[in-house]
Specification:
This protein is of the alpha+beta class and 96 residues long. The chain has one helix and five strands; from the N terminus they run H-E-E-E-E-E. The chain has one helix spanning 2-20, and strands at 34-37, 43-53, 58-66, 78-80, 85-89. Strands 4-3-2-1-5 form a five-stranded antiparallel sheet, with no helix packed on it. The radius of gyration is 20 Å and the shape is elongated. The termini are far apart.
């Protein structure tokens, strides 16, 4: 009886662990979210996903603009990958 209880507790622990590791859409970076990149202490607004930089001939996860200036031409584009993100501020759509 005691060994059955241990097995049940172990199974429950494993299920809880795997459920907490499942994909959570809230953790995804979406267009409109604000991010802080590692090494850059400025807010960047995400405006594109899965982007190719023509100048650098390289694919990036995201395209953004500095939040305080917005689009100022191609020289203001910020291309970055998810691993470079330090913090995400999720934009939430609110309808009146």
């Amino acid at each position: 009886m005691k060994s059955q209880l241990k097995i049940i507790v172990l199974i429950m622990f494993v299920m809880i662990f795997f459920c907490s590791c499942s994909h959570d859409e809230k953790n995804e970076i979406e267009i409109g979210d604000i991010v802080i990149l590692k090494g850059i202490n400025e807010k960047i607004i995400v405006v594109g996903k899965d982007i190719e930089s023509i100048d650098q001939n390289k694919k990036y996860d995201y395209l953004g603009y500095f939040y305080n200036t917005g689009y100022i031409g191609d020289n203001g584009n910020v291309f970055f990958d998810e691993f470079a993100v330090e913090r995400v501020y999720h934009a939430e759509y609110k309808e009146k």
